[in-house]
């Protein structure tokens, strides 16, 4: 029996996942494993929904996806085995605990008030632009039915406030993980902060940012748990995750409607496939119909950066035409995302897929390795920025999130995170390592 290209792709990705588990000794938090796993899940989703989509993958799609996933494995393994060093003769640190942070309640209250303020400020401006009256109902309806304010149309003050609120949300996820998991503090303020941050990402940013924040926060919790002494992930936790997964499947269409999707489906699995398996289907469509030539180097991979340059210079050479068109298969919409490999292949063919993926692997594995070995001085900053990057890696099966993040806003967030890393000691930070030394 001859297997289809889709079956071949799933088989190759499964073998690559097993290779990942072997090379990284079953470390489920390793970036290479989650990168490969999400592409395997996307491929399996297409396989089980093959009758719904009526698809037939091209052999080039199999080559691009499998080569890209394998490149990430190789890049991460090179860093893991010290085959490539970013820092020469760096001494090993003796401290083997993360930094625990106890922030006064007054500061936490300020964080909550600020987040609410930004939500109100942004959505008031948004409603004024579309001619609506301010109310919570109108805010939610506008988020579902209208687009976000373009960055160039947004007042400078609101833009800065949003960047600070986004940065603060990831700091709050660190505080939440450290205090709830590490210190076992029963302070409801941390839960309220996470809820407000989720509300902020839903009402004031693109919907994908909310998903990425949820993934990053969950990863932060697991990472802190793994790096904590005498804390184990019990069967109860696995059961809760399983239940949460079933609830996600059941309510996914309702969540999609909240995200502005109007697609009519007969069951939740069809809706999930639009988000999970369809990006590979769209990549296949692009590879079969790629007749667009590059006007400037790396135009798709760094499109967000070029778009920023165009907005502030007006030079039309940097005005890259929107590449993400909506596609349909078997009369069903497949969305307008094409996995991260579409941009890499457009800009550099198969070599571009290999090189860009290798660089992603180098950066993420290097950071994860240092965190795992507790070989970083400013651990708050490292934990926060890595959880953010992990969310980008998680979304690679969906779109080119990693390189799209390379724009001035991420630099602003990094600066804010570094400032917090310096200021938190003055707000009430306590270092477990120093306490242990005093004992």
Describe the model.
By secondary structure, the protein is mainly alpha-helical. It has two domains: 5-95 and 260-369, no CATH class; 105-228 and 407-438, no CATH class. Helix content is 68%, strand content 1%. It has 18 helices and two strands. The chain has helices spanning 5-23, 31-48, 50-53, 59-80, 105-130, 136-145, 156-182, 188-204, 207-227, 235-258, 268-276, 278-288, 303-313, 341-372, 379-394, 401-404, 408-427, 432-438; strands at residues 328-329, 332-333. The chain has a two-stranded antiparallel ribbon. Strand 1 and strand 2 (332-333) form a beta hairpin. Helix 9 (207-227) crosses helix 15 and helix 10 (235-258) packs across helix 11 (268-276).
Spatially, the strands of the biggest sheet line up as 1-2
Mean pLDDT: 78
Strand content is under 5%
Spans with pLDDT under 50 lasting ≥5 residues? 86-98, 429-439
Question: Structural class per helix/strand content?
Answer: mainly alpha
Radius of gyration: 22 Å
The total strand number stands at: 2
How many H/I helical runs? Answer: 18
String of helices and strands? HHHHHHHHHHHHHEEHHHHH
The helix fraction, in percent, is 55-70%
Please outline the major beta sheet: 2 strands, antiparallel
Distance between the termini: 69 Å
Domain count: 2
Shape: globular
